[in-house]
Amino acid sequence: EPFGMFLVLVDPDSKFEKLLGIASIAPYFIMCSLTTLIVRSRELVVCGWLGGHLLNEVLNFLLKRLLRENRPEGAPAVGFDVHGMPSAHSQFMGFYLSFSSCVLAYRVRNCSMIWKVGAASFNLVLSVSVAYGRVRLGFHTPAQVVVGLAVGFCAGLAHYAACGKFLFPLFPAISTWRLSKLLLLKDGAHVDNVLQFEYDAYQAAERRAE
After folding, report:
1. Torsion of CA 176, 55, 30, 32, to 10 degrees
2. Region 99-106 average pLDDT
3. Do residues 19 and 137 make contact, with C-beta atoms less than 8 angstroms apart?
4. What angle do CA 35, 36, 38 make, to 5 degrees?
5. 5 pLDDT exceeds 60?
6. Residues with Cβ < 8 Å from 36, sequence gap 6 or more?
7. Three-state secondary-structure class, residue 21
8. Over 50: is that where the pLDDT of 10 sits?
9. Rounded to the nearest 5°, which phi and psi values hold at 44?
10. Per-residue burial over 18-54, b = 16 or more CB atoms within 10 Å of its CB, e = otherwise
11. Nearest 5°: CA angle at 154, between 153 and 155?
12. What is the pLDDT of residue 77?
């Protein structure tokens, strides 16, 4: 039996649908990437980002049970919630698009505007591709993906605004907690270039070891 969470049915003769099928797993890849980034970098801002995505999933779960709108007729049913409003994939990508854009605009420094615009544009294309794919592949109606994108985008903006007002200012204090020291959690907001900072630290440690 196919694993429903990753089930994608495409026309075997359509390369375009195969690309949309690949794009549809972007939310799972992004969640794995954020989790890996937390384990690797221990950055508090990434913890807040991942936490926002989890809250967004809870919001989607509640909205689906409040609105109780079914998926379109003929939608694949293996492992999926019968309710389709709003689309979870689209809501996820809407949240990712707005929150990542805010991070690029306000948290990423020592980086050219061209790179930031390029990254934001890629995220926009990816988000639209995932949303369109949910309609093209028969999982959702156009209204369900539009509402999902809108809800997720607004949720991402609201979460970043809340983090900026209430959470980010607490990061310096949180990083001094005993648990934070045990888990090596840190706030890198004061570091312009983390890669350069880490490289310089490794080089300095190597010189001291000589």
Report:
1. 60
2. 93
3. no
4. 65
5. no
6. none
7. helix
8. yes
9. -65, -35
10. eebbebbebbeebbeebeeebeebbbbbbbbbbebbe
11. 90
12. 64
